[in-house]
Every structure is written in C-alpha cells, then in structure tokens.
Protein: Probable membrane transporter protein
Organism: Neisseria weaveri
Amino acid sequence: MDELLFFLVLTGFLAGLMDAAVGGGGLLQIPGLFNFLPSRIAPATIMGINKFASFCGTFSATGQFIRKISVPWKMLIPAAILAFTASYSGAKLVAHLPVAYFKPAMLVIMLIMVVYTFRKKDLGQTVRTAELTRKELLLGLFFGTLIGFYDGIFGPGTGSLLAFVFVRFYAYDFLTATASAKVINLTTNLAALSFFVPHGHIIWPYALPLAAANLCGSLIGAQLAIRGGSRFLRYAFIALLCIIIGKFTWELI
C-alpha cells in the first residue's frame, strides 16, 4: 500500500502540474491509474477517481488564473452550463461506448491543430480587446457542448481542444485562452463527478491522496503558465500536442 500511495502521489502531482501549465494532465494520470491501481477495479471507477483528482487540481488552477487574467464571462457562463449537461451525459455513457474509437478521430484533430499552430507564428500572441459578436457567443455554446461531451466520456486532450478553440476562433492570446479553458474544464469535471460519486464510482482512500497531490502540482503549474506568458504557452502547447499525437499513434499501431 505504501508503494501504491507513493506512485499515486507522484502521478497526481505531475499530472496536476502539467494540466495547469499547458493541459493534458489526463494523458499522464489516466494511464497511471490503470497501471497502478488493482486490476479488479472497474474502468468507470478508475475514471471517477481520475475526475475527482482532476477537479481538485483544476479548481486550484482556475482560481489562480481568474484572479490575474480577465476572461470572457459573457460567453463562458452559458457555454459552461451546456458543457456541464453534455459532460454528465458522456459520463453516463462511459461504460457503454467503445471509447477506443475516439482515438483515431482525436489523432486527426490534433494533427490539424499542431500544424496550424506551428504555421501561424502570431497565433495566440496578441491580446484581444474587441467585444464578442453574437456569432462568437453562439459558437461558444456549440463548442462547449461538443467538448463537454467528449470530456465526460473520454477526457484526455480536453484542455488543449478548448485552448485551441479560444485562440483560433476568438483570437485570444494563449494566456487568456488557457484561463478560459480552465473554467469550462472545471465545469465538465464537476458534471462527470455528479454522476460518478452518487453511483459509487469513487474509492476515497485512492482518490483523496491523488487529489491532494494533483492540487499541489496545479499550484506550481498555474504559476509557471502565468509567469511564462503567451509565448511560453505557445511552445508548450505545440509540445503537448506532439506528445498526445505520439501517444495516440503508439496505441493505435
């Protein structure tokens, strides 16, 4: 048990740090849980443990970001409400749908994202001052629903998808985009938990230390992101996408 606790804490800390700084913490945490936790634990329960820890870490990171970064609440609040509903629906289906089918589609999406971000040198480097248009507000509702469902049923790469949407379709800088993504991500994590917890898909002796470590990692990760600024986040974003692409490709071969 002591060895298991050590690996849980280490995994949670590194995942929280990574997720708060650039996103993608689930890429580390989910495989870690499937490898370290006893094989008798159901996949839905492992996802519930993961979501509880992710929620605690994202809550910490979101608080740090919104205290220092101005985010578009007018669009985020309704988008978060729809994302909550969609994420809850996704969590209900997690035990019934073959989530492996999501990986080929995600691989294509990530390839497009990394090529586009690499080619557009000024993407996410300028601070937007213009008000959101009606079309952009509606677009936020659409993406909130779509990505919220994906996060509820699968998860890895959600933060990267959200950040890319805010940079590409709203012309936000990477710092504002990352902060905005955290708000939606926090909501989708809460939605998934509202299904997992009442249905007993949490084992608290595992979930609590993992969550504490995730929260500590997120405190450091958020500070790295804020101090590094948009230029740091652009390079970190590209690096993260390359890691995700490599991981998904390896699993599909």
